[in-house]
């Protein structure tokens, strides 16, 4: 599925760090930042999570939920969150169903070896579950700030 701004965001319900759950339906009426990332405790993913955590209070003051999604387990998310003192919600998508619904479970080519993996991508979703902005093939530097700036327009 090739999502674009203006499309309805695919529904999801996932387990989160600290034994929680998150669903798009449960966030109805609130804007949401869904950011997909490849793996806990890797350099780029750690920097991205730390950047979003640094801005977490600003997102919260605007009523915007920030949710990071990867294939990692809830236990892995708990360790990752504790180790880096993250202040955002991390959701586990072990079967990649949500990643596939958002079109971010893709074929990657690393040194000629093809495999499936998570594309680093972010979706800004408004309170009516409509996708407002999509960032694909995200470069980490400055990304969280760009998402915050876009969220101010909601």
What would you say this structure looks like, in words?
- The protein contains 5 helices and 9 strands; from the N terminus they run E-E-E-H-H-E-H-E-H-E-E-E-E-H.
- By secondary structure, it is α+β, with helices and mostly antiparallel strands.
- The chain has a 7-stranded mixed sheet. Strands 6-7 form a two-stranded antiparallel sheet.
- The protein starts with 12 loop residues before the first strand and ends with a helix.
List strands and helices in order, with pairings.
Blueprint: E1 13-16, E2 21-23, E3 32-36, H1 43-54, H2 56-61, E4 65-70, H3 74-84, E5 89-92, H4 97-101, E6 105-110, E7 113-118, E8 121-125, E9 131-135, H5 143-151
Parallel strand pairs: 3-4, 4-5
Antiparallel strand pairs: 1-2, 1-5, 3-8, 6-7, 8-9
């Amino acid at each position: 599925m090739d999502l674009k701004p203006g499309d309805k965001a695919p529904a999801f319900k996932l387990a989160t760090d600290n034994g929680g759950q998150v669903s798009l339906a449960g966030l109805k009426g609130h804007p949401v930042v869904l950011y997909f990332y490849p793996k806990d405790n890797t350099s780029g993913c750690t920097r991205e999570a730390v950047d979003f955590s640094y801005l977490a209070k600003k997102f919260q003051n605007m009523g915007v939920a920030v949710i990071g999604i990867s294939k990692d387990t809830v236990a892995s998310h708990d360790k990752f969150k504790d180790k880096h003192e993250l202040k955002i919600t991390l959701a586990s998508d072990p079967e990649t169903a949500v990643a596939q619904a958002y079109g971010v479970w893709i074929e990657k080519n690393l040194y000629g070896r093809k495999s499936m993996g998570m594309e680093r991508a972010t979706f800004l979703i408004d309170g009516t579950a409509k996708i407002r902005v999509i960032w694909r093939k995200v470069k980490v530097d400055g990304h969280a700030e760009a998402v915050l700036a876009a969220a101010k327009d909601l």
